[in-house]
């Protein structure tokens, strides 16, 4: 079990709890898991150094601060070998918040968040369509996000042992 990274059940429990409430104090999490806050601190530092934990994020209701449009863009590439250069250019567009390399019809699936339709139009027409290597795009506007959640980690026996990239 996760031995190549020295990750044990306590680490998995910490990850699981923090994914659901990253704002919990180490002291409170320690009480919940029957260990000291110091232990949680040391374990979190280890998980960050291993690259398992990649920081924390504040979850914001974007609509409440004026970002009313979320769209998903399927991107067709001229050649799949252009993926890396296209992604490098997509990173420069701040409205693109997530990019996935996919199978199926699209090479890339991107999530775009904008204040309004005019901003989305500008992103699609003035920025995205000008990226070299993109053949064409297909845009889907989200009408509502029904839910968003983190995966629940199996703290007893993970489906696949974690590895540090060394086989």
TrEMBL record:
Under the heading SMART domains, the entry gives: HTH_ASNC
Q: GO terms for CC?
A: cytosol
Q: Which Pfam families would you find in this protein's record?
A: AsnC_trans_reg (PF01037), HTH_24 (PF13412)
One biological process GO term for this chain? response to amino acid
Identify the InterPro entries for this entry.
AsnC-type_HTH_dom, Dimeric_a/b-barrel, Tscrpt_reg_AsnC-like, Tscrpt_reg_AsnC/Lrp_C, WH-like_DNA-bd_sf, WH_DNA-bd_sf
Keywords recorded for this protein, A-Z: DNA-binding, Transcription, Transcription regulation
Protein name (database record)? Lrp/AsnC family transcriptional regulator, regulator for asnA, asnC and gidA
The record lists the organism as: Thermoflavifilum thermophilum
